[in-house]
Amino acid sequence: MSVNNFETALAKIADWFYKLKKQISEGEIGSKERKREMGWSIALHGGAGDIPRSLPPERRQPREEGLRHCLQIGVEALKAQKSALDVVELVVCELENWPDFNAGIGSVLTSDGTVEMEASIMDGNSMKCGAVSGVSTVLNPISLARRVMDNTPHIYLAFQGAHHFAKLQGVETVDSSHFITAENTERLKLAKEANRVQIDYSQYNYPQPTQNDAEKKLPFANGDSQIGTVGCVAVDSHGNLASATSTGGLVNKMVGRIGDTPVIGAGTYANELCAVSATGKGEEIIRATVARDVAALMEFKGLSLKEAANYVVNERTAKGTVGLIAVSAAGEIAMPYNTTGMFRACATEDGYSEVAIWSTS
């Protein structure tokens, strides 16, 4: 063997060892074993925003109860070896049925006093996803999004097309009046009086201020507030990841307006590395491609889940606009937010469990 050939062979061996070391350090080698060791994990949210610590118990406790209830359902499903995809759909269905969140039965009203719900779901293994918008009669929009994913060649159906597909699929529907509650009708009335688009969880929704105080205190958004949105992310015991998000939008939004929730890569994303569900101001989330950016930072920069999630929330988006929940294939959980608070809950196979709204620091 010539000297040149020998040096070339040595260079190839060195390069092979370098790549092997890199794969091991980044978890590409032996990752399945680590996934099994970490086990399953789950996180869910009920919206982020200007949630005052003075939030009255009658407003706070039902949401905390809802998070605990839905978390327990998700935990039991994961213990029963349900797939991550089935678990996130199941949990978000339960959140949609809980009237204290802005999704499903609790959905807020448009400027015309109608309901236009939206939802999306994504499977990290296959990268398949489904989304719906402008839904007004489907009891659980997240399940319709799942049907779009499973039973069509498309990703996204909206308005008349989504309703027609719902009929073809035989999903449960109700009259649109089912979603128009007294509380949300009052919210719309107050928002119209102030001539603003209203963010849920704002001070305006609690002890009613005077008109002048309402103008000063209400943190309206020029765009989406998506606060009250619900979401769930999970990794099962086999390391499969999934994400699901659902919302009614924001009070007094323009008819036909679509936010981040059904936009894959913005409000919802999952791949083989992580699953993410975002909540906050939709235009901000869409511009920053929040959910996808978390995964991209892990994939291309080698950041951990928490590093990636914290960077996106605190460096890529404006303060007071965004929160997210995320899980990694290794079972890690991240739940950062740059708002006053975020209704959130999580659990892991090793017994850790948390339900929280504000930072403890």
Describe it:
This protein has helices spanning 3-25, 31-38, 57-79, 84-96, 141-151, 159-169, 182-193, 211-217, 282-287, 290-301, 305-315; strands spanning 41-49, 117-123, 129-135, 156-158, 230-235, 241-247, 268-270, 274-280, 322-328, 333-334, 341-348, 353-356. The protein is globular, with a radius of gyration of 22 Å. It starts with a helix and ends in a 5-residue tail after the last strand. The chain is 38% helix and 19% strand. The chain has an 8-stranded mixed sheet. With 361 residues, the protein is of the alpha+beta class. β9 (322-328) and β10 form a beta hairpin. The chain is built from 11 helices and 12 strands. It catalyses: Cleavage of a beta-linked Asp residue from the N-terminus of a polypeptide. The record marks 228-229 as: Cleavage. It comes from Crotalaria pallida.
